[in-house]
Design brief:
This protein is α+β, with helices and mostly antiparallel strands. A 6-stranded mixed sheet has the order 1-2-4-5-6-3.
Length: 157
């Protein structure tokens, strides 16, 4: 999670949050705007910077594109993530199989993957859409995410 802040009109100064790794920020932010992505996880060894009621500026390409509010936060092991949480996270096709494949790849690249690793999880709600351009392109990002999921799962079959 990011520690920088940005001023968002109507919300004041908010901490910044970008989802995923570089190059994925806009697509994952679009999933938030589309209402598909309502949760996230991060390495459980890191500090937890959030609590219910806290608001965040979702960042993509160096700009705030949405405001979210933390609904719930906790810790869970990677191997305890279930279908319901995978669907709530809303990435790929929303399946547990995609969630596991994508997150294993992500955490392996970071050099921290283990099936029993601890994760912080956060459930959030969309409060405001700030970037109309990204909102207009959200359906395209959703379609691209679903196509990527099909390709990733087919390659692993």
């Amino acid at each position: 999670m990011d520690e920088q802040t940005v001023v968002v009109e109507g919300f004041g100064r908010l901490p910044c949050l970008s989802f995923g790794s570089e190059g994925m920020h806009a697509r994952l932010a679009a999933l938030v705007i589309a209402g598909r992505k309502r949760a996230t996880v991060w390495d459980g060894r890191e500090e937890n910077p959030t609590e219910p009621g806290m608001r965040w500026a979702v960042m993509a390409d160096g700009r705030a594109v949405a405001v979210i509010e933390t609904v719930a936060v906790g810790r869970r092991r990677y191997d305890q993530i279930d279908e319901a949480f995978a669907a709530l996270e809303g990435e790929g096709d929303g399946s547990l199989a995609f969630w596991q494949a994508a997150h294993e790849d992500y955490f392996r690249k970071a050099g921290v993957f283990a099936p029993d690793m601890w994760l912080w999880w956060e459930e959030f709600r969309l409060v405001a859409v700030i970037d109309a351009e990204l909102a207009a392109a959200a359906a395209e990002h959703v379609a691209a995410e679903e196509a990527e999921a099909r390709a990733l799962l087919a390659a692993r079959a």
